[in-house]
């Protein structure tokens, strides 16, 4: 189940530069590594960050979670060579697209 989600996320990340300006992926191996990092961050770090920013998330009616996802996307772009994000806006848009794809995957798999 996790491998299928990782595989689909990898394909989405590899296709993302064709839909979002400012994002670049050099190879499929880079997309695999980026997907692994994003899956790890979303499974381990995101629950902690979400709990710590809960008051801000409540005030913004959950919209701050989009900023958190964009920050994770930006962070992964900074540490993985071959994966580039030109701006924070591109990171937010890319993270939003990946979130929508993951939501669709969860809807059909579960």
Q: What can be said about this structure in brief?
A:
The chain has 110 residues and is mainly alpha-helical. It has helices spanning 2-15, 28-52, 54-59, 64-79, 88-109; strands at residues 23-25, 83-85.
Shape: globular
- By helix and strand content, what is the structural category? mainly alpha
Strands side by side in the biggest sheet: 1-2
Distance between the termini: 9 Å
Most strands sheet: 2 strands, antiparallel
Number of helices: 5
Low-confidence runs (pLDDT<50, min 5 residues)? Answer: none
- How many runs of DSSP E, i.e. beta strands? 2
Number of domains: 1
Task: Please tell me how large the radius of gyration is.
Answer: 14 Å
Query: What fraction of the residues are assigned to beta strands by DSSP?
Result: 5-15%
Strand and helix order: HEHHHEH
Task: Determine the mean pLDDT.
Answer: 91
Word description of this protein:
The chain is mostly helical. It has one domain (2-109). It contains 5 helices and 2 strands. The protein is globular, with a radius of gyration of 14 Å. The mean pLDDT is 91.
Question: Which key terms come to mind for this protein?
Answer:
single chain, 110 residues, 5 helices, 75% helix
Write the layout of secondary structure elements.
Blueprint: H1 2-15, E1 23-25, H2 28-52, H3 54-59, H4 64-79, E2 83-85, H5 88-109
Antiparallel strand pairs: 1-2
Helix pairs in contact: 1-2, 1-5, 2-4, 4-5
